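B., you asked whether I could sanity-check this one before it goes into the benchmark set. Here's the sequence:
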Amino acid sequence: MTEDVAAQTPRRRTALVLALVAITVVVIGAATAWWLTAGGSEPRATAQRFLDALVAGDAEALRVVTDADDDALALFAQAREHASGAALGAVETDGDDALLRATVTLGGERAEVAVPMRRLGETWIVQSATALTVTPGLGDAFAIGDAAFSADEAPRLLPALYEVAPLPAEVLRGSAEVAILPGQETAALDLDVAIADDATAVVQQHLAEHAADCAAATDAIPDACGIVVPWAADLRALERVAFTVERVPEVSLDTAAMAFEATGGALVAEVTGTAHDGTARTFSYRTDDWIMRGALAFRDAQLVLMVF
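And here's what the prediction gave me:
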């Protein structure tokens, strides 16, 4: 019997030791998990994640660590270029506020930046959206990626390199790049805009549509169409008119004056009314020198023809 007791004793010790080891592993594992979670909400960890997301072009990661809205995140995803490098320096804390300092490389240029952070509950948030003001030389709107803005809007942008283009794109040229660095509250860009080389074709198309509208008139000679019909020499009253456009006037632009002249059009007008002798008559009038003149303007990101 003595031998049986001695043989069982080591087994109990082994079980106890294994149990202690298991408990120790669980406790240490739990402590490690808590440390990783708590460490992730520290300002330095948030600052590093912010910089990593800038370099990776990761809009979803920035959603977690910044106060950027959906519009800013969508524009960031369409940026022309993201930061190519970022090195975190000091992170200075003062209660619920902090300031991260870093060196960021964007567009081939290195810059020292200071970016504010703020604690919201248990989470640190980077405040790094910049309001961009754009002044187009021509037009009243601009585009960043596939988003359009009026000239009086100031979209908020996350740090990246963006291409800004004037609108409407089919008529205007003069896009430019703007680098938005972390920590900037505001930025401004003046666009050097000019009429595009192929704008004449666009104006010609718009004028053809306007000419079709002019020709649709049935009870009067339309205004702002460059149409002069001397029907009063033959009729004392006009009852109806029918136009046939044989050739739309050809556009020539004066970009300096923001004006156009369209010449060489051919138009036929058949006018029915009461003749001077009181009878119903129809007369046909034709011109091979139909001319329209006017000015170019921009409204709500669209080209507007103002025909005289």
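One thing to flag: The CA atoms of residues 50 and 238 lie 74 Å apart. Otherwise nothing jumped out at me.
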